[in-house]
User: Which sequence fits this backbone?
């Protein structure tokens, strides 16, 4: 339960499409090399024998910000700095979020000024401010409360765009169990391409591939393996390796 990576998929955000230019650290660069990478990924997809799905799949190839984490003492993480776990740095007027009687676990805060700035097509993504993520991680809430499943209110996303010096490192409610308070970790962002996971909605519903199908096996065992080896730094073929990212 101390691992925070298993739960961070709640803040995977969705980009749409692939545009003509992107910005990294606010410097605009031509995207020709990025588009070449997309063409290379499509070529892998075709070589795996999945060319019949190409028209639908190409919109699923998206840039993302990989969040490389390293466990770190909160004393070494500045107020307002991007981090996973620990205690959130909140303005005084924001109350700790609850679902029903359960105080939520703090998952992460992302300072957007520390992130590479990706602007895609007509998207107008914010480049400053802090996004906070909370989740109801009580097992008794998950498994005993009938209103928990598919309920968006079991998680909470907050946004703050004020001054950093107005933030306070906030203690969780006393009611929040220690095992539901996660270790703090510093974050290093890195731009990285992403494609849908084998067991994702996109693969099942949009591509129409499912477990046991020949083409599903081609996606998972051939294409996804080749893509990951080339485009995911530190990739391992082991199952359930924690990987945190924004967008993609």
Assistant:
């Amino acid at each position: 339960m101390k691992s925070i990576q298993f739960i961070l998929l709640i803040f995977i955000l969705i980009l749409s499409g692939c545009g003509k230019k992107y910005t990294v650290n606010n410097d605009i660069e031509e995207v020709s090399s990025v588009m070449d990478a997309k063409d290379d990924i499509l070529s892998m997809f075709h070589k795996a024998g999945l060319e019949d799905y190409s028209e639908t799949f190409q919109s699923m190839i998206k840039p993302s910000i990989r969040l490389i984490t390293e466990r770190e003492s909160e004393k070494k993480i500045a107020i307002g700095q991007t981090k996973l776990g620990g205690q959130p740095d909140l303005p005084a007027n924001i109350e700790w979020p609850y679902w029903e009687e359960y105080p939520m676990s703090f998952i992460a805060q992302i300072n957007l000024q520390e992130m590479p700035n990706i602007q895609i097509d007509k998207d107008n993504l914010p480049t400053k401010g802090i996004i906070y993520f909370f989740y109801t991680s009580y097992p008794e809430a998950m498994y005993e409360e009938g209103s928990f499943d598919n309920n968006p209110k079991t998680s909470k996303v907050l946004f703050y765009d004020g001054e950093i010096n107005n933030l306070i490192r906030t203690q969780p409610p006393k009611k929040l169990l220690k095992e539901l308070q996660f270790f703090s970790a510093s974050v290093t962002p890195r731009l990285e391409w992403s494609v849908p996971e084998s067991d994702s909605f996109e693969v099942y519903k949009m591509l129409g591939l499912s477990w046991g199908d020949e083409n599903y096996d081609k996606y998972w065992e051939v294409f996804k393996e080749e893509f990951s080896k080339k485009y995911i730094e530190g990739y391992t073929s082991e199952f359930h390796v924690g990987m945190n990212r924004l967008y993609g």
Notes: Residues 5-246 form a domain with the Hypothetical protein YwqG fold fold (CATH 2.30.320). The helical segments are 32-47, 54-57, 139-144, 201-206, 214-231. The first strand starts at residue 21 and ends at 24. The chain has one domain: 5-246.
